[in-house]
Amino acid sequence: MTDPLHTDLLDLAQEAARRAGALLRDGRPADLAVAATKSSPIDVVTEMDIAAEKLITGLIAEHRPDDGILGEEGAATEGTSGVRWVIDPLDGTVNYLYGLPTWAVSIAAEQDGETVVGVVTAPMRGETFHAVRGCGAWATGAWDGERRLACRPAPPLDQALVSTGFNYVHDVRAHQAEVAQRLIPLLRDIRRGGSAAVDLCDLAAGRLDGYYERGLHPWDLAAGDLIAREAGALTGGRPGERPSGDLALAGSPGVFEPLQRLLEDFGAWHD
Ligand code: IPD
Ligand code: CA
Ligand code: CA
């Protein structure tokens, strides 16, 4: 039976994601411009990233004022309830800026440091993904109602479709390109979708066999990692470690282990 707290957290996460997704989809200015840059000139923030985070944190504060919040655009409150929200108000900002459809709102709730709820909504795809720890992963689509997610049976690695992403910092991305160059001949192919949260949900939905990236932050990963695990995927970082900024990796059982070994051999976590 689902913990009633988790049900409440899921309801609030879904409502916040729905409202922020609608704001981003319907409120995108035709002349949307870069408002600021962060780790490098190509790491951009738009006014809409900031507006979406404000909407989400406002709603959470209204309903659960004692919770902690960590948001990419600056939200950082400690909280006293043992619950912390980890929010990427717009994952895939570069896609959003260019009018490409792969972007999402990602909201996770942690209880005592463990992610218990994850919601990722991708409005231009008409899809919302969610998971509650121990209760499976689910997708609601505009066309096919609600369905339970399961990652696809693992193919041999040389037939695996694996997604990745490239960091905004020049030297990191140059090294990532070298690693990808070594991996491509060993896989079916590589994808670069532009949203880590959507990549993890696509893995959960059986549309990818694996995903890896270096340089992610907790807000990129928190919700999608739970959704992927609840769909049967394995997730981690370097061997024996949890996903981290060094390396975040996810795959169907059978793809995860050999991919992790290759990434370790190729030194994917450092320059
Ligand atoms: C980015 C996306 C992208 C990944 C980057 C992230 P943002 O998040 O998830 O797919 O490759 O590492 O920073 O900046 O669009 O929120
Ligand atoms: Ca992100
Ligand atoms: Ca973001």
UniProtKB/TrEMBL annotation:
UniProt organism field: Streptomyces lomondensis
UniProt family annotation: Belongs to the inositol monophosphatase superfamily.
The enzyme's E.C. designation: 3.1.3.25
PROSITE patterns from the UniProt entry: IMP_1 (PS00629), IMP_2 (PS00630)
InterPro entries recorded: IMPase, Inositol_monoP_metal-BS, Inositol_monophosphatase-like, Inositol_monophosphatase_CS
Protein's name according to its UniProt entry: Inositol-1-monophosphatase
Cofactor(s) named in the record: Mg(2+)
Catalytic activity entry: a myo-inositol phosphate + H2O = myo-inositol + phosphate
